[in-house]
Amino acid sequence: MPRKTLKERNQPNDAKNNRIRPVLDDLIGIEDPDDLMLEIIDNLQESGKVPQVGKAYVFVYNAKTPNLEYDQNPLVVVTDVFTWGFRGVNFHWRERRNYTWDEVAGQLYEVNREELKDLQALPFKSKRMR
């Protein structure tokens, strides 16, 4: 078995397990935020429906509140979990937002710190009006 280089041994686990970085070049040129989101979640694993406080996630969201501008493809660090849903800081809006369970379409996809950095550079925010 080949030995790891010094750079590989000193690399944090998050960087070694970054599922986004290897496909960044493939994402260049995709302009539609929803197409980008599909490519992103294709490279991640479903993490279930209930998030953990302090962890980052991407997911598809369809808000129910009328006349509310929302992000259908949020990138969120979860701050609170409740019986009705959860609250987190949405990196696209740069503010806290509430997310109800029934409006999360499908699963949550947990992302690690290194992936979070890469995802912040991708324009997959999908601004919608309910």
What's the number of structural domains? 1
**Average of per-residue pLDDT values:** 90
Range of strand content: 25-35%
Helix content: 10-25%
The assigned structural class equals alpha+beta
Biggest sheet record: 5 strands, antiparallel
Q: Could you characterize the architecture of this molecule?
A:
The chain is of the alpha+beta class and 130 residues long. The chain has one domain. Helix content is 24%, strand content 30%. It contains 5 helices and 7 strands, in the order ααααββββββαβ. The strands form 2 sheets. The protein has a 5-stranded antiparallel beta sheet. The chain has a two-stranded antiparallel ribbon with strand order 2-7. The radius of gyration is 16 Å and the shape is globular. It starts with 5 loop residues before the first helix and ends with a strand. About 5% of the residues have low confidence.
Task: Detail the topology: elements first, then pairings.
Blueprint (H helix, E strand, L loop, with lengths): L5 H5 L2 H4 L7 H4 L5 H10 L13 E6 L7 E3 L3 E7 L3 E6 L4 E6 L3 E8 L1 H8 L6 E3 L1
Antiparallel strand pairs: 1-3, 1-6, 2-7, 3-4, 4-5
Summarize the structure.
This protein has 5 helices and 7 strands; from the N terminus they run ααααββββββαβ. With 130 residues, the protein is an alpha+beta fold. It is globular and about 35 Å long.
List keywords for this structure.
130 residues; single chain; two-stranded antiparallel ribbon; alpha+beta; five-stranded antiparallel sheet; 24% helix
